[in-house]
């Protein structure tokens, strides 16, 4: 069998349908793979905002053995799970359900949780052996019946609809003594029990589930022998058991149909489970067949007889039949239904309920598999109504109420169900979260928990405490899904007149170092040496050629013209001008290159934004300690003076140092404070050189470009996480901005520096020299993180994670989180005295196979630039300019050419390295030409820029669902 990727455990419910033809092999539902498998990562991940229709069924679930306890209270008989768990060694820590959550004695507490959540539906199961202790009606136990009457009456009194499972794995032990579900007599015995339940509770219960996960009962109970009754006969027992379960289900369905439906008006069905199966390669037919067969052996085993034609899927009959023949058996191990059986089974469901759960260390959360499974059900079973009757994730015992993983799980899985409903037309009618509270989790005992409420099993009273996920789920239900948050709505408007629109590159990443041979007896850049020695990467993966911008000024200028930018940010290569980093040798050829570039820009009416230092330190300076050597401050001052003097009459926008945080942190693990100290002083000296010698005659501005993520607390209700988020921002943006804009390091940083005995504080004279060395705030920003406290002593004492609902990119660290951009711009305004802000880098990477239709990047720029517009128009942030990173795909440092940030694709297989515009070029050009965002009502508009040869009115603003 070809390998098949399994997407774990979806239990689904669907409405009753007329007889359908048997499934083909593979089934016609292969259209789901054909539709969804080619999706890009962006298309899979993009979050969908919207709501379910009115009347959508929201609820939570539990099951009798997992929560009730009272295993022998008031006449209850033992079940197979009582017998199994009470034997030492079967369950971790010898856990069992003898007490569990003690729900048998805590109806009021359970009702309180349900009432507080404001759920519409509660899915519970009845304990057969609590009602009939030995499984037969003759053993009727009224106290057990009274318990369920009290529970059901309490639900009704609180306007909560009970959804009742008649059998959730806890078979009376007495019936297992007659071989349990492997005995055909169980069909009538089960019918007797269900008949009693209908008659007793059916006046109030309108949703009935006959069996929970019959596939698990048959395969795990009688094949693998993992769960009671622990029979290990995988060759034949599961098929016999499933045969009996299907007949038993059909019998009790007909009993309700004939005796109770007219008076009670309820619905009866079955809850099936399935794992989504994805072909490893959609283009390989046998892998498509294998994926389809995997679904037919799980879901189709029971759904096909009930919802299609009363018989097993052909894929299953052929597979088992062929193997049985090869084994020399006279008949297939898969039993056959008579025509009478088929007619009796087909259509025995009014709705089909189901669930999906993900367990720690076993199953993986792959939310997009749920959407595909729902679509498969739509195609396979004739567009039915679908109820998801369990969905949840387990977390370990270390997690109590702060269950971040469950929050991520709910947000992603519910959203995939919403996509199926809103985008694909799947008739999803209900969603039940698993589970109401932590409980006995079968073979895992109490080592994991699925609950929205934490239960302290070490306390005799089993207190329940709502987790963060309970609050989230409350909000999801209240909002009936995920309405678009106000802060993510598009704002239509314009930036101020004279706004600077730019794009950016850096010398080492694009220029090519091989073109100037005056100083290449040994590597002159620290990155050159690193790329050739430390990484040992090939010439194609270093900056030797890069994009060859050194020789392609004309091509680059043409690209900039296409973008309609009025500025271009690039960096000066220090060793290209001063090979050893000092004034002893000035390389006139290097300076001449920059004159030619600047002159070409100005001739095209594009103004240069020049960065003096973008990480490519002369190797000669690194050989004497680099930024850890105090003399670097003087060296940088001298270098800046040379550049200002040579280019200052043409360049009016200067950046001293790009991202000093990364310079300090990356490659200086033992001395980041010393490096940062010298970087700040070097910046200040360069600013003073310009201020003292060149400002009056050149009239330019000088600043430093600081980078920072925005940080939100992982748990906004936890002070430790709130404090950690503050530290993350202060250690990125504040480390350098606070001395430059406010004078000296922040008190938070100084306290940590002193606490760790790190000698890195400014003298009063240095503070005076550094404070105010800015004409603007240069800012690079890409993403947002969720911060939490960490006890061990990294710099900021904080760890970070990403919300799984955030879009990925081609860089592991870069998640698409536009709202954080507006937040941090407001932070800069409030923290640093409302300075003029220039965004000097912002962009997104991709890794997937080259596609010029880069909708991911278009989505990123649309949303990030719009958040900047909100900061300007709504918040009064003094926004002056924006630069997209980057002009073209280039060498992305240690990632080589694998991560592509470019607006232009550089075809590296062509020796001429042509720059080819991606779709984002025309989109960014439109934003520039419109100086912001025009409203849909203004489209078509004369400011729109269309790709040559394409002029389609109304396509300016792309809407992604």
Describe the secondary-structure layout.
Blueprint: E1 4-14, H1 31-36, H2 41-45, E2 50-51, E3 57-61, H3 64-67, H4 80-85, H5 107-117, E4 121-125, H6 128-131, H7 142-157, E5 161-167, H8 173-176, H9 186-201, E6 207-212, H10 214-222, H11 237-259, H12 261-264, E7 267-279, H13 285-309, H14 314-326, H15 339-345, E8 353-358, H16 368-380, E9 385-393, E10 395-396, H17 404-422, E11 427-434, E12 448-449, E13 453-455, E14 464-466, H18 468-479, E15 481-482, E16 493-494, E17 500-504, H19 507-510, H20 526-534, H21 553-563, E18 567-571, H22 574-577, H23 588-603, E19 607-613, H24 619-622, H25 632-647, E20 653-658, H26 660-665, H27 672-693, H28 695-698, E21 701-707, E22 710-713, H29 719-742, H30 747-755, H31 764-770, E23 777-780, E24 784-789, E25 798-801, H32 818-831, E26 837-841, H33 855-873, E27 879-885, E28 904-906, E29 915-917, H34 919-930, E30 932-933
Parallel strand pairs: 3-4, 3-11, 4-5, 5-6, 6-7, 7-8, 8-9, 9-11, 17-27, 18-19, 19-20, 20-21, 21-23, 22-24, 23-26, 26-27
Antiparallel strand pairs: 1-7, 1-9, 2-15, 10-12, 13-14, 16-30, 24-25, 28-29
Helix pairs in contact: 9-11, 10-11, 16-17, 17-18, 25-27, 32-33, 33-34
Pfam family, one: Glyco_hydro_1
Family: Belongs to the glycosyl hydrolase 1 family.
GO biological process, one term: carbohydrate metabolic process
């Amino acid at each position: 069998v070809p390998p098949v990727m399994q997407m774990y455990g979806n239990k689904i419910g669907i409405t009753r349908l007329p007889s359908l033809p048997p499934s083909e092999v593979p089934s016609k539902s292969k259209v789901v793979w054909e539709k969804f498998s080619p999706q890009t990562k962006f298309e899979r991940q993009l979050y969908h905002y919207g709501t379910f229709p009115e009347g959508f069924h929201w609820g939570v679930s539990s099951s009798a053995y997992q929560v009730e306890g009272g295993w022998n209270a008031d006449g209850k008989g033992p079940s197979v799970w009582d017998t199994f768990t009470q034997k030492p060694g079967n369950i971790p820590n010898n856990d069992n359900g003898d007490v569990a959550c003690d729900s048998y004695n805590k109806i009021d507490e359970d009702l309180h949780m349900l009432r507080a959540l404001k759920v519409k539906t509660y899915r519970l199961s009845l304990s057969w052996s609590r009602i009939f202790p030995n499984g037969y009606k003759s053993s009727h136990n009224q106290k057990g019946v009274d318990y369920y009457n009290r529970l059901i009456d309490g639900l009704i009194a609180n306007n909560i609809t009970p959804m009742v499972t008649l059998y959730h794995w806890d078979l009376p032990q007495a019936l297992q003594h007659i071989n349990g579900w492997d005995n055909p007599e169980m069909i009538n015995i089960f019918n007797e029990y269900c008949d009693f339940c209908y008659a007793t509770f059916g006046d109030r219960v309108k949703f009935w589930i006959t069996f929970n996960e019959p596939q698990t009962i048959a395969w795990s109970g009688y094949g693998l022998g993992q769960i009671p009754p622990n029979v290990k006969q995988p060759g034949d027992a599961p098929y016999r058991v499933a045969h009996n379960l299907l007949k038993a289900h059909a019998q009790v369905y007909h009993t309700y149909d004939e005796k109770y439906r007219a008076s009670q008006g309820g619905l009866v069905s079955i809850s099936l489970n399935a794992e989504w199966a994805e072909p490893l390669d959609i283009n390989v037919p046998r892998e498509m067949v294998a994926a389809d067969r995997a679904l037919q052996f799980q879901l189709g085993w029971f759904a096909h007889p009930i919802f299609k034609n009363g018989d097993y899927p052909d894929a299953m009959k052929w597979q088992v039949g062929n193997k049985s023949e090869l084994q020399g058996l006279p008949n297939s191990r898969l039993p056959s239904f008579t025509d009478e059986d088929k007619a009796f089974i087909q259509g025995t469901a009014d709705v089909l309920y189901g669930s999906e759960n993900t367990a720690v260390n076993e199953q993986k959360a792959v939310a997009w598999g749920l959407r595909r499974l729902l679509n498969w059900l739509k195609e396979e079973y004739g567009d039915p109504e679908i109820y998801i009757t369990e969905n949840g994730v387990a977390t370990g015992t270390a997690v109590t109420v702060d269950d971040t993983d469950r929050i991520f799980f709910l947000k992603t899985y519910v959203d995939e169900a919403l996509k199926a409903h809103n985008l694909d037309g799947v008739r999803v009618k209900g969603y039940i979260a698993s589970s109401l509270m932590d409980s006995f989790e079968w073979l895992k005992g109490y080592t994991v928990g699925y609950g929205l409420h934490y239960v302290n099993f070490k306390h005799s009273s089993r207190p329940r405490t709502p987790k963060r996920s309970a609050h989230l789920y409350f909000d999801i239900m209240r909002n009936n899904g995920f309405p678009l948050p106000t802060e993510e709505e598009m704002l239509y408007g314009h930036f101020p007149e004279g706004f600077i629109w730019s794009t950016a590159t850096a010398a080492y990443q694009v220029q090519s170092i091989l073109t100037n041979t005056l100083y290449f007896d040994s590597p002159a850049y620290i990155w050159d040496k690193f790329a050739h020695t430390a990484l040992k990467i090939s010439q194609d993966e270093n900056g030797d050629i890069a994009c060859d911008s050194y020789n392609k000024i004309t091509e680059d200028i043409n690209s900039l013209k296409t973008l309609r930018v009025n500025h271009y940010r690039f960096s000066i290569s220090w060793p290209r001008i001063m090979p050893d980093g000092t004034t002893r040798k000035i390389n006139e050829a290097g300076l001449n290159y920059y004159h030619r570039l600047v002159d070409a820009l100005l001739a095209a009416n594009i103004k240069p934004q020049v960065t003096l230092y973008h990480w490519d330190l002369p190797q000669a300076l690194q050989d004497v300690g680099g930024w850890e050597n105090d003399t670097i401050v003087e060296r940088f001052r001298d270098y800046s003076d040379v550049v200002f003097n040579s280019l200052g009459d043409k360049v009016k926008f200067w950046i001293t140092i790009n991202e000093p945080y990364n310079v300090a942190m990356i490659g200086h693990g033992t001395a980041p404070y010393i490096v940062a100290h010298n970087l700040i002083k070097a910046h200040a000296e360069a600013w003073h050189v310009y201020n003292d010698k060149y400002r009056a005659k050149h009239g330019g501005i000088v600043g430093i470009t600081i980078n920072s993520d925005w940080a939100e607390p992982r748990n906004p209700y936890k002070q430790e996480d709130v404090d950690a988020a503050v530290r993350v921002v202060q250690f990125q943006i504040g480390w350098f901005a606070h001395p430059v804009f406010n004078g000296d390091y922040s008190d938070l940083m100084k306290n940590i520096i002193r606490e760790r005995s790190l000698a890195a504080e400014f003298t009063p004279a240095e503070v005076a020299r550094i404070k105010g060395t800015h004409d603007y705030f240069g800012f690079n920003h890409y993403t947002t993180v969720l911060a939490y406290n960490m006890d061990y002593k990294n710099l900021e004492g904080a760890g970070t994670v990403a919300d799984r609902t955030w879009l990925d990119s081609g860089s592991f660290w870069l998640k698409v989180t536009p709202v954080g951009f507006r937040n941090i711009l407001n932070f800069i305004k409030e923290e640093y005295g409302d300075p003029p802000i220039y965004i000097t880098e912002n962009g997104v990477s991709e890794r997937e196979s080259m596609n010029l239709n880069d909708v991911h990047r278009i989505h990123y720029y649309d949303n990030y630039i719009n958040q900047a517009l909100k900061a300007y128009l709504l918040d009064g942030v003094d926004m002056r300019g924006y630069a997209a990173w980057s002009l073209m795909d280039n060498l992305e440092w240690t990632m080589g050419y694998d991560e592509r940030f470019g607006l232009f694709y550089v075809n590296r297989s062509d020796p001429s390295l042509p720059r080819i515009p991606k779709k984002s070029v025309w989109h960014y050009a439109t934003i520039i030409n419109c100086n912001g965002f025009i409203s849909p009502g203004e489209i078509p508009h004369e400011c729109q820029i269309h790709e040559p040869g394409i002029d389609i009115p109304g396509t300016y603003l792309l809407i992604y669902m």
